[in-house]
Amino acid sequence: MDTARVTTKGQITIPQRVREQMGIQTGDVLAFVGQEDGTVVVQKLRLPDAGDVQERFAPTTTAENITEEDVVRWVKEVRAQQFTGRDPGRSQRSREE
Question: Which of 11, 15, 74, 93 is deepest in the core (most CB within 10 A)?
Answer without folding.
Answer: 74
